[in-house]
Amino acid sequence: MKAILDTSVLIARHPLPLDVEAGISTISLAELHFGVLKTEDPDERSRRAAHLGRVESAFAAHPVDEWVARTLGQLQAAIAIRGGNPRARTADLVIAATAIAHEATLFTRNYKDFKIIDDLVDVREPPS
Q1: What is the DSSP string of the chain?
Q2: Domain locations along the chain
Q3: Would you say the C-alpha torsion 53, 65, 72, 19 has a positive or negative sign?
Q4: How far apart are CA 57 and CA 59, in angstroms?
Q5: I need a surface site. Which of 25, 41, 46, 126 has the fewest CB within 10 A?
């Protein structure tokens, strides 16, 4: 199964079954870098930086290319039409657009963040 991992899955360090071909969005790398830089605790910063290094080594990071950008615009429009605020969760929408563009399932530990578009993207809790 082809999957894009939400940042919540990366942070939780959730193990994946061997049959999952996982990738990530470059926006997840940005979120993880932010997490490293925002903490003031040097020990925590070190742990986060080490984890970020493992993530960068383990997963292919898919860029925001034309197809992802086009898909992102479609998701933002769908959310606006449905009465939501598409700008409130831009990072989540980039990750969802990446999954759609790469014909992959989106694994997240925060399903509620994607509920409004769960008919447009295959979004699931990661398998155990």
Answers
A1: -EEEE-HHHHHHT----TT-EEEEEHHHHHHHHHHHHH---HHHHHHHHHHHHHHHHHSEEEP--HHHHHHHHHHHHHHHHTT--GGGGHHHHHHHHHHHHTT-EEE-S-GGGGGGGTTTS-EEPPP-
A2: 2-124
A3: negative
A4: 6
A5: 41
Contact predicate 74/53, CB 8 Å: no
Confidence category of residue 13, pLDDT binned at 50, 70, 90: confident
User: Sheet harboring 60-62: ordered strands across?
Assistant: 60-62, 21-25, 2-5, 105-107, 123-124
Phi, psi of 61 (to 5 degrees): -95, 120
Place of tokens 């034309």: 66
User: Rounded to whole angstroms, how far apart are CA atoms 9 and 106?
Assistant: 10
Provide the terminal-to-terminal Cα distance of the chain, rounded to the nearest Å: 14
For residue 90, give every residue at least 6 positions away whose Cβ sits within 8 Å of its Cβ, in sequence order, or none. none
pLDDT score recorded for residue 15: 83
Q: What is the pLDDT of residue 16?
A: 86
Query: Do 21 and 2 form a contact (C-beta atoms < 8 A)?
Result: yes
